[in-house]
Specification:
- The chain has 672 residues and is α/β, with parallel strands linked by helices.
- It folds into three domains: 146-209, no CATH class; 220-264 and 285-385, Leucine-rich Repeat Variant, CATH 1.25.10; 396-432 and 446-671, Rossmann fold.
- The protein is built from 30 helices and nine strands.
- The protein has helices at residues 2-16, 21-34, 44-77, 81-86, 108-131, 146-158, 163-174, 181-190, 193-200, 225-234, 243-254, 257-264, 288-300, 304-312, 315-325, 330-343, 350-355, 358-366, 371-384, 439-443, 452-460, 489-502, 517-530, 536-540, 556-563, 572-575, 582-598, 624-627, 653-665, 667-671; strands spanning 397-401, 412-417, 464-469, 510-515, 542-548, 601-607, 611-613, 617-619, 633-637.
- The strands form two sheets. The protein has a seven-stranded mixed β-sheet, sandwiched between helices. A two-stranded antiparallel sheet has the order 7-8.
- Strand 7 and strand 8 (617-619) form a beta hairpin.
- The radius of gyration is 37 Å and the shape is elongated.
- The protein starts with a helix and ends with a helix.
- This is Protein SERAC1.
- InterPro entries: AB_hydrolase_fold, ARM-like, ARM-type_fold, SERAC1.
- It is found in: Endoplasmic reticulum; Mitochondrion membrane.
- Belongs to the SERAC1 family.
């Protein structure tokens, strides 16, 4: 027993010298193990008391050691929140200082602590993998607010290898509106390309997620934006181009802004919407040369190799400068958006477009109340978003719904094709009221909508993808934007069919909605698709067609233009609408037989009132007999040719009958 007591005193001496619990136990048990069996004593309770003292010291010492190590570990894992609060916006962080005293870094105590910390870190790392976070709640001792931890958790989750996890993280970010400014900036600076584009395409995203565009390079000395645009245009290949591109390119490069203004005056209409916004001969349009350059660049940007040239020569920065400079000129901004949208069709340019700062501009434009600006930005972002969008939207193809990322499954497509002098948005606006509409009323979609398919139909049928198509048209050659361009119905239909197929049209059930000449294009597109095996899905998935005053048998506009000098030289589009046009008669006969064979559902509307063309001419553009396809209901409506596709209000017969046809025709598809 004396040997046991001496060993006990020996261990206590070592513990006073900061021996660790491990060393203490090892030495004690080793001494006990080497002792010879003690002599038997008659005092039984004395042995029990000594055993209790020994085990008690072990329990007490172990408890003190574990308490000390837990507190030390907690201290090492606790953030200095005061420092964090002071330095949130700094570009550096504070870390705990490490003692330079080597005596503290060696010894049995240090090694034991090191091994214990290593084991705890393994537990934390394992829990992190399981719980998708750097720390599990059970083990976390980080002294920060929950939403601050969420910032980093979501950022890590957005870069996960699991696509579903990434999408969920972006959605959670976009729905967060209680963060501080610095937290949005953390995401903006640390997120990857996919996350940034996903946030831009999320409806509820805060604009603080997007950093301002980087500073633009200074213009060259003695140079102007007009001159920079010309140099950019001159750097692009000028051979093997179609006549229209050659025309605008040569015009922009050869003429000065003064000569262009004097030569063309205000008669020209740019932007691709074909709307008759002509000015008088005496007025000089603003930024004329820039418009011609942008028109040429729009055409060039449809060629992939030319997009590479535009990017390499600083075109993204130059277009951004021009966009910011002309905030009060929607036409210029629209053409710039068309160019960026075309460049976004090339995936190898996505990182460059993002780095140049265009995503922040597009995200802001998406929230604009102006449908044209928002739709242009939506098209570009959809082309950039390869995470959730497989389709590619080429120039002139705009998605009205869904413009943002959505969890709503899309079960069918409804396509809107405008007619002569129409546009992707203006054609489908609500019928103008007689009173002057203020900007406030225009912004109030409950009272007036600038595009009823986007406002009314999208709400009534959320499972639809709604697409509006745009192409250039003109009444006469003197109003044609590209004098050398001659696009027949056959040419246009093939071009539109190719673009629509790239947008995924044909992959799900389709209903076509057309106005005037747009109906002829729909008929021609379907006939052409029936001849091409790769387009067979377009035919197989076509469920029905709505025709708003489509001149199946010709229009009086073509007859009138021959004898009236108002139109001067009728365009090819107008000539093809003539009643005695062989091409028009063949198209009608072929399609009627084809539609009957495919059992397409058809609904026809026709105007009963004459239309004013200019201030002097009054004409019944499409008579009832011409609007009769030969199948489907034919419904006369007391409106003129321009308003046949513009309901006065949501509960008007024109819209309600259209909605009924769409719902009934797609009933089975929408139920599945």
């Amino acid at each position: 027993m004396s040997s046991i007591l001496s060993a006990f005193h020996f261990c206590r001496a070592f513990s006073h010298q900061r021996m660790s619990l491990a060393a203490y136990c090892v030495i004690c048990w080793r001494r006990i193990g080497t002792l010879t069996p003690p002599p038997k004593t008659t005092t039984y309770w004395r042995d029990i008391r000594n055993i209790i003292k020994f085990t008690g010291s072990l329990i007490l010492g172990g408890s003190l050691f574990l308490t000390y190590e837990v507190l030390a570990l907690k201290k090492s894992l606790t953030l200095d929140t005061q420092v964090v609060e002071r330095e949130k916006m700094k570009s550096y962080i504070y870390v705990n200082t490490v003692s330079l005293d080597k005596r503290e870094n060696y010894g049995i105590t240090y090694q034991a602590r090191k091994e214990l910390h290593k084991a705890v870190r393994k537990v934390l790392a394992t829990s992190a993998k399981i719980l998708w976070g750097p720390f599990a709640d059970t083990f976390s001792t980080v002294d920060v607010e929950d939403h601050e931890c969420a910032t980093w958790l979501l950022l890590r989750k957005s870069q996960s290898g699991d696509r579903a996890a990434r999408l969920q993280a972006v959605q959670e970010m976009s729905e967060t509106h209680h963060w501080h400014d610095y937290q949005y900036r953390i995401i903006a600076q640390a997120c990857d390309l996919r996350t940034l584009i996903g946030l831009a395409r999320s409806k509820e995203s805060d604009l603080r997620f997007f950093l301002p565009p980087p500073p633009l390079p200074s213009l060259k000395e003695d140079s102007s934006i007009e001159e920079e645009l010309r140099q950019l245009l001159a750097s692009l290949p000028q051979t093997e181009l179609d006549e229209c591109i050659q025309y605008f390119t040569s015009l922009a490069l050869s003429e000065s802004s003064q000569s262009l203004a004097a030569q063309k005056g205000g008669l020209w209409c740019f932007g691709g919407n074909g709307l008759p916004y002509a000015e008088s001969f005496g007025e000089v349009p603003s930024a004329t040369v820039e418009m011609f350059c942008l028109e040429a660049l729009v055409k060039h940007s449809e060629i992939s190799t030319h997009c590479d040239k535009i990017e390499a020569n600083g075109g993204l920065q130059l277009l951004q400068r021009l966009y910011q400079l002309h905030k009060d000129c929607p036409t210029i901004q629209r053409n710039i958006m068309r160019i960026i949208g075309n460049m976004a069709l090339n995936e190898h340019l996505h990182s460059t477009i993002v780095r140049s700062g265009w995503v922040s501009i597009l995200a802001e434009a998406m929230k604009s109340h102006r449908i044209m600006e928002a739709s242009q930005a939506a098209r570009t972002l959809a082309n950039l978003d390869r995470e959730t969008v497989q389709e590619k939207y080429q120039d002139g193809v705009y998605v009205l719904q869904p413009q943002y990322r959505t969890s709503q499954p899309i079960k069918a497509d409804v396509l809107f094709i405008h007619g002569l002098m129409g546009a992707a948005f203006k054609t489908w606006r609500q019928q103008d009221s007689e009173q002057v509409l203020t900007d406030k009323i225009l912004e109030d979609e409950a009272r007036y909508t600038t595009c009823w398919p986007k406002t009314w139909l999208a709400r009534d049928c959320p499972a639809l993808r709604i697409i509006s198509v745009e192409y250039d048209t003109s009444l006469s050659d003197w109003r044609t934007r590209c004098p050398m361009e001659r696009k027949s119905i056959a040419f246009r239909s093939n071009e539109l069919l190719r673009k629509l197929r790239a947008a995924g049209v044909g992959d799900r059930p389709v209903i076509w909605v057309s106005h005037s000449m747009g109906g002829l294009l729909v008929k021609k597109m379907l006939l052409e698709a029936s001849k091409k095996p790769e387009m067979s899905t377009v035919i197989n998935n076509t469920r029905g067609i709505i025709f708003y005053s489509v001149p199946h048998h010709g229009s009086r506009l073509a007859e009138y233009s021959v004898n009236v000098r108002y139109l001067l030289f009728p365009s090819l589009e107008v000539k093809e609408l003539s009643k005695d046009s062989p091409a028009l008669k063949t198209l009608q006969d072929d399609f009627l037989e084809f539609a009957k064979d495919k059992n397409f559902q058809v609904l026809n509307f026709v105007e009963t009132l004459p239309t004013y063309i200019g201030s002097m001419i009054k004409l019944h553009v499409v008579p009832v007999e011409s609007a009769d396809l030969g199948i489907g209901d034919l419904i006369p409506v007391d409106v003129d040719h321009l308003n046949i596709c513009k309901p006065k209000k949501k509960d008007a017969f024109l819209y309600q009958r259209t909605l009924q046809f769409i719902c009934e025709t797609l009933a089975k598809d929408l139920e599945n």
